[in-house]
């Protein structure tokens, strides 16, 4: 059987396990599992866990509950090369999650997208169930206008989309929807599409879908290419136009009709990436000049001017404000 055809199921439960053995059981699971984390027990609270994990190519599902402990993914547990993204949905109770300098509290029906590249602390505040769907970043990147911007933001305005995703995923498991390679491929594809809907089409994509037509599709594809490659200093209107099979002037007109130029959209994406990096603790020691070059600017003074014009503050101001 090829790796593409493989799937696995793992059930973990502390039911019937003596309390003095539960911590070792959970630590072993999180040490060897797909999601690696330390288990830090809450003093005075009994450990209680019961969850099911389903791993298939390009998707891992987890449903169940964990209380009486915090999960901590330290920098040492971040796996090199793993840039997957996981949507965490609180089905009942309340969950706190901390990453990228943000401390979020999620209630029933709310969700958040987390990155495997980040250090994370997750803690159950009120007992209840959770659902998570983990997929490779390369799957979502072409489907979401700016997948980085979606990380660590509470999703509470799409209850229908969240419910449909969770219901579909649980029905796949209940109805043995991963039983054959053909069913797995179909089911996983649907999960990816539903996850993209939860994360939400941008206004540009929603408007393009309403207009339809080749022009809207080309503009959408051009924006995807820019968002996911904006750090490249050699990215140009000529290069993107060549990828799309159109002339540079035609591409420029598409952007102008949308209210922006190619260059202004590119600069905007580079500045957004720099702004995120300046606010994230893991880049605290990196010089501002290095961040400017990392996101695609070749001229530091131009970066500083553009940044101040966009955010009304200098890069150093943004960094010091995030550190307070």
User: What is the domain tally?
Assistant: 2
CATH class of the largest domain: Mainly Beta
Helicity level, as a percent range?
Answer: 40-55%
Please report which band the strand proportion falls in: under 5%, 5-15%, 15-25%, 25-35%, 35-45% or over 45%: 15-25%
CATH homologous superfamily classification of the largest domain: Jelly Rolls
N/C terminus separation = 53 Å
* Helix and strand composition category: alpha+beta
CATH architecture of the largest domain: Sandwich
- Average pLDDT confidence is 85
Report on this model:
This protein folds into two domains: 3-200, Sandwich (Jelly Rolls); 204-323, Arc Repressor Mutant, subunit A. The chain has helices at residues 19-32, 137-140, 147-150, 159-174, 181-199, 203-211, 214-229, 237-244, 248-257, 262-279, 288-294, 300-311, 315-323, and strands at residues 8-13, 38-41, 48-56, 59-67, 69-73, 85-90, 94-99, 102-106, 111-115, 120-126, 130-135. Strand 7 and strand 8 (102-106) form a beta hairpin. Helix 4 runs antiparallel to helix 5 (181-199). It has 324 residues and is of the alpha+beta class. The strands form two sheets. Strands 1-3-4-11-6-9 form a six-stranded antiparallel beta sheet, with helices on both faces. A five-stranded antiparallel beta sheet has the order 2-5-10-7-8. It is 45% helix and 21% strand. This is AraC family transcriptional regulator.
